[in-house]
Amino acid sequence: MYKRQQGLSLLGWIVIVFVAAVFATAAIKLGPKYAENYTITSIVERVAASSAANSKGQLRAEIQKNFNVSMVTELKAKDIKIETIKGGYSLDPSYEIRVPFLYNIDVVLKFEDSVIEMKK
């Protein structure tokens, strides 16, 4: 019975290494983008919860200051949609980025975070 058992063939190993390399590349290239999105969302939520800003300009300045401290490069405060609503502001940090993946293959990441409402 043991004489008939064999290990994985060379072709099998090549396929496994290729699949593992694709997943490792995805983790290395896309992981930091997801981490930065988490930072952006947490900054906008924190500013919305604790800001005493009286205008959209003050809100943008406060958000940009936090972006600079946290070294956020994918999004600027001017790109966040801020709308006036009854009793406060609505902040929408949705954005889309294109990340080069392999050769001529790009991955489009679309971060459509929920709209954050800020009460005055």
Summarize the SSE layout with pairings.
Elements: H1 10-50, H2 56-70, E1 81-85, E2 88-92, E3 95-102, E4 105-111, E5 116-119
Antiparallel strand pairs: 1-2, 2-5, 3-4
What does this entry look like structurally?
Strand 1 and strand 2 (88-92) form a beta hairpin. The mean pLDDT is 90. The protein has 120 residues and is α+β, with helices and mostly antiparallel strands. The longest helix has 41 residues, at 10-50. The protein has 2 helices and 5 strands; from the N terminus they run H-H-E-E-E-E-E. It has helices at residues 10-50, 56-70; strands spanning 81-85, 88-92, 95-102, 105-111, 116-119. It has one domain. Helix 1 packs across helix 2 (56-70). The radius of gyration is 22 Å and the shape is elongated. It is 47% helix and 24% strand. A 3-stranded antiparallel sheet has the order 1-2-5, covered by helices on one side. A two-stranded antiparallel sheet has the order 3-4.
